[in-house]
Design goal:
Helix content: 10-25%
CATH architecture: Beta Barrel
Number of domains: 1
Distance between the termini: 82 Å
Number of helices: 3
Mean pLDDT: 82
CATH topology: Porin
Low-confidence stretches: 27-33
Shape: elongated
Oligomer: single chain
Strand order of the largest sheet: 1-2-3-4-5-6-7-10
Order of helices and strands: HEHEEEEEEEEEH
Structural class: alpha+beta
Strand content: over 45%
Length: 253
């Protein structure tokens, strides 16, 4: 089974990122990180650049998604992904056509293995994915073996439902202020796929090509919007605390 080039490219980026983080860690002196992250350490939104880039380049199929997640203790990151799967394909040899544009969603959690709060994160990730979608299949000229004539085949609005699991690893690093960049590679295991007897879907939104279990990847830009808000609140509380300390010190004889 052939793997898409985007997946291979994502794997290369992930390996390069791991190597960079390893060199960065070796170059810094070892020190104990005694700082403990608060329960709610951030709120972030992100977008996968791979799907949008594939769509812009005219790819036959693409998954375009955005995500939201919470940061708990800088260790646990509950996440929700919402996207649109788009596929319009015509077989070069058979002439069969397949078309669908439908939403999908994923829910899961990321775990950060990096013990230091230095802006870099190494994740293990888990997702449950679901999509209920409609698709069209057809062929402009189907040959009748009995009469020797050709007729068009058009089947519109076929309904299907798919469920799958995703397991993988990801690297995320800080670029500037609240902007971060991340890479992930995922193994996708299909749980179920229900569809009519008329024809099996070629593509499942969010999952990809319907050819059994497979691999996927993402390149995401992340905006840690909640982290800066909480930092500002903490700084404000610290300033107020310092003012109160100075005020009480002035009252002492």
């Amino acid at each position: 089974m052939k793997r898409p080039r985007t997946c291979r490219f994502t794997c290369i980026l992930l390996l390069i990122s791991l190597a960079c983080l390893s060199l960065q860690a070796k170059g810094k002196p070892k020190q104990k990180d005694k700082e403990k992250a608060p329960l709610l350490s951030g709120i972030a939104v992100s977008a996968d650049l791979v799907g949008f880039a594939m769509k812009a380049m005219g790819a036959k199929f693409a998954n375009m998604e955005v995500s939201a997640r919470l940061n708990l203790y800088d260790k646990f990151f509950p996440a929700a992904d919402l996207g649109i799967g788009d596929c319009h394909r015509e077989g070069a040899e058979s002439g069969n056509t397949f078309s669908t544009t439908a939403p999908y969603m994923r829910f899961g959690i990321d775990y950060n293995f990096n013990k230091k709060h230095n802006g870099n994160r190494l994740f293990g990730l888990f997702r449950y994915g679901f999509s209920s979608f409609k698709y069209d299949i057809g062929n402009p000229s189907i040959s009748d073996p009995v009469y020797g004539t050709t007729i068009p085949l058009v089947i519109d609005g076929e309904k299907a439902t798919a469920q799958w699991l995703e397991f993988g690893a990801a690297v995320e690093t800080k670029l500037w202020s609240f902007v971060r960049l991340g890479w992930s590679i995922r193994y996708k295991a299909r749980l179920s796929l229900s569809h009519p007897d008329g024809g099996e879907p070629y593509f499942v939104p969010g999952y990809g090509k319907n050819d059994g279990n497979g691999w996927g990847g993402t390149v995401t830009v992340v905006f840690d919007v909640g982290q800066n808000i909480m930092k500002a609140k903490n700084k404000k509380k610290e300033r107020e605390k310092q003012k109160n300390n100075i005020y009480h010190a002035d009252e002492k004889p």
